[in-house]
């Protein structure tokens, strides 16, 4: 069994006690009750000709082992905040050391310390930070059920992850509809041409190529170079994993990437904001 299959099997067991019917109406009501988070898609498009950086908070991983086990998620988010277009918070605990509370704490930190999810500080936090818009947050987890979408929206996310290879078409459709009803964007993650075709059939507007082969844990930026040029022009292209330097980012940008998603390199950087600026190009 490869690692992704193992993680997905665990995730389905982990969330089983939480699973209940979650209707689109319930998600729409949740969306209406909470202030709108900043738009993930708009943040990736807004990079002014530079490569947008989605800066990830990642304490450990199956491929790298311990990265920054004791890192504080909100403190790390503050180190990213001035330079990142968006943030990614891994909320899986077993394999990545993250929690949903990390997402809540990061959202609160970006709202200027306001932990009240019903507050409309999203709208003003950017101005307080000197005019830069508040970076949206993607909940990076192994999504299988709309109950996780509701959790993401309540915790302050602006987007969720849909790993195409890990889900059947019915699950993708359900998660995508749930995200839309909750006012969230969806990042569709792919690793192969067939998965690109599936993502497009589901109406994906943001697609990420995961450069890491999750069977053997090898990363290869050539995968982004092969797949991104096949994206329709109006799709936002993200290159994920294995990006460490400005040269790496420039390479995938030359292939058409609008954004890069970077975890390990930023968690280990002495000055993450400076590295983000280098990745911006
Ligand atoms: O990172 C892993 O080892 C991993 C293993 C199994 C499933 C997912 C995994 N990573 C999730 C990610 O998408 C990465 O954290 C993200 O792309 C950032 O990667 P990196 O910059 O290489 O830390």
TrEMBL record:
<keyword id="KW-0057">Aromatic amino acid biosynthesis</keyword>
<dbReference type="InterPro" id="IPR011060">
    <property type="entry name" value="RibuloseP-bd_barrel"/>
</dbReference>
<dbReference type="InterPro" id="IPR045186">
    <property type="entry name" value="Indole-3-glycerol_P_synth"/>
</dbReference>
<feature type="domain" description="Indole-3-glycerol phosphate synthase">
    <location>
        <begin position="4"/>
        <end position="279"/>
    </location>
</feature>
<keyword id="KW-0210">Decarboxylase</keyword>
<comment type="pathway">
    <text>Amino-acid biosynthesis; L-tryptophan biosynthesis; L-tryptophan from chorismate: step 4/5.</text>
</comment>
<protein>
    <recommendedName>
        <fullName>Indole-3-glycerol phosphate synthase</fullName>
        <ecNumber>4.1.1.48</ecNumber>
    </recommendedName>
</protein>
<keyword id="KW-0456">Lyase</keyword>
<keyword id="KW-0028">Amino-acid biosynthesis</keyword>
<keyword id="KW-0822">Tryptophan biosynthesis</keyword>
<dbReference type="InterPro" id="IPR013798">
    <property type="entry name" value="Indole-3-glycerol_P_synth_dom"/>
</dbReference>
<dbReference type="GO" id="GO:0004425">
    <property type="term" value="F:indole-3-glycerol-phosphate synthase activity"/>
</dbReference>
<dbReference type="InterPro" id="IPR001468">
    <property type="entry name" value="Indole-3-GlycerolPSynthase_CS"/>
</dbReference>
<dbReference type="GO" id="GO:0000162">
    <property type="term" value="P:L-tryptophan biosynthetic process"/>
</dbReference>
<comment type="similarity">
    <text>Belongs to the TrpC family.</text>
</comment>
<dbReference type="InterPro" id="IPR013785">
    <property type="entry name" value="Aldolase_TIM"/>
</dbReference>
<dbReference type="GO" id="GO:0004640">
    <property type="term" value="F:phosphoribosylanthranilate isomerase activity"/>
</dbReference>
<dbReference type="Pfam" id="PF00218">
    <property type="entry name" value="IGPS"/>
</dbReference>
């Amino acid at each position: 069994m490869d690692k992704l299959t193992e993680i997905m099997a665990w995730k389905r067991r982990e969330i089983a006690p939480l699973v209940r019917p979650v209707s689109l109406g319930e998600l729409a009501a949740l969306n209406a009750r909470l202030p709108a988070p900043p738009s993930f898609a708009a943040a990736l498009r807004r990079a002014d000709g530079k490569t947008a950086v989605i800066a990830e908070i990642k304490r450990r991983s199956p491929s790298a082992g311990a990265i920054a086990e004791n890192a504080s998620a909100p403190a790390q988010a503050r180190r990213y905040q001035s330079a990142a277009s968006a943030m990614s918070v891994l909320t899986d605990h077993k394999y990545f050391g993250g929690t949903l509370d990390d997402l809540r704490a990061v959202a609160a930190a970006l709202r200027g310390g306001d932990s009240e999810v019903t507050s409309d500080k999203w709208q003003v936090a950017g101005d307080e930070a000197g005019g830069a818009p508040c970076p949206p947050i993607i909940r990076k987890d192994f999504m299988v059920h709309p109950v996780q979408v509701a959790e993401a929206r309540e915790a302050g996310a602006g987007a969720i992850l849909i790993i195409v290879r890990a889900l059947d078409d019915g699950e993708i459709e359900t998660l995508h509809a749930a995200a839309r009803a909750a006012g969230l964007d969806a990042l569709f993650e792919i690793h192969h041409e067939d998965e690109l075709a599936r993502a497009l059939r589901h109406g994906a507007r943001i697609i990420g190529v995961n450069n890491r082969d999750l069977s053997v844990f090898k990363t290869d930026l050539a995968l982004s170079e092969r797949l991104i040029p096949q994206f329709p022009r109006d799709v936002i292209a993200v290159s994920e994993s294995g990006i460490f330097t400005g040269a790496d980012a420039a390479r995938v940008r030359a292939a058409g990437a609008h954004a890069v998603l970077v975890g390990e390199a930023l968690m280990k950087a002495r000055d993450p904001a400076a590295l983000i600026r280098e990745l911006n190009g």
